[in-house]
Amino acid sequence: MKASQLFGIQIKCENAEKEGYIMAISRVEDKIEGYICCNQQETEFFAASAGAKLKDGKLCAVKTGKRSKTSRNLKLGQPVYSEDGKFLGHVDDYDVTANRLTGALVGRKKFPFDRLTIGDVVIVKNDKTRTEIAAKDMFIGAITSTH
């Protein structure tokens, strides 16, 4: 599923009998913590993503609650840069699997979420960096191991 498919979707919270629509997605790292929602009177409420299920075009959430202090809103359209400062485009969407963000779609490219640093802009960490660290760890392990 794409994150953009969640924006504007109808939501119903069973415990507080609140209904409305999703206007933002709250995330902690790669986990979707919940949804910032609005009712017909434009009053905001937070719906937890745990236990939420899509049914007949509506998202049925188990409970309302409060956002954690470490959560951030997921934003589309943010500029994306490589670690070297090269502009790569803008975030078009995010892939979502089981309440986890798995990748970012930037133009025709897809970047794994674990390679992203998200702030005011999105930085894509080089694959080479992870490979170099793994090689260094293997080298250190080889010279420090006793046979």
Q: What characteristics describe this protein?
A:
single chain, mainly beta, SH3 type barrels, 2 domains, six-stranded mixed beta sheet, 1 helix
Task: Describe what this molecule looks like in 3D.
This protein is mainly beta and 147 residues long. It folds into 2 domains: 3-73, SH3 type barrels, CATH 2.30.30; 79-144, PRC-barrel domain (SH3 type barrels, Roll). It has one helix spanning 127-144; strands at residues 10-13, 18-28, 31-38, 44-48, 53-55, 58-61, 64-65, 72-73, 79-82, 87-97, 100-106, 109-112, 116-118, 122-124. The strands form 2 sheets. Strands 1, 2, 3, 4, 5, 6, 7 and 8 form an 8-stranded mixed beta sheet that branches. Strands 12-11-10-9-14-13 form a 6-stranded mixed beta sheet, with no helix packed on it. The chain starts with 9 loop residues before the first strand and ends with a helix.
Topology:
Layout: E1 10-13, E2 18-28, E3 31-38, E4 44-48, E5 53-55, E6 58-61, E7 64-65, E8 72-73, E9 79-82, E10 87-97, E11 100-106, E12 109-112, E13 116-118, E14 122-124, H1 127-144
Parallel strand pairs: 1-6, 9-14
Antiparallel strand pairs: 1-2, 2-3, 2-8, 3-4, 4-7, 5-6, 9-10, 10-11, 11-12, 13-14
Mean pLDDT: 87
Unreliable stretches (pLDDT < 50, length at least 5) are: none
Compute the CA-based radius of gyration: 19 Å
Name of the CATH first level of the largest domain: Mainly Beta
What is the general shape?
A: elongated
The helix/strand class is mainly beta
Distance between the termini: 49 Å
How is the CATH topology of the largest domain named?
Answer: SH3 type barrels
Helix segment tally: 1
Number of strands: 14
Number of domains: 2
Q: In the CATH hierarchy, what is the architecture of the largest domain at level 2?
A: Roll
Largest sheet: 8 strands, mixed
The topology string of helices and strands comes to: EEEEEEEEEEEEEEH
Q: Percent range for helical residues?
A: 10-25%
Portion in strands: over 45%
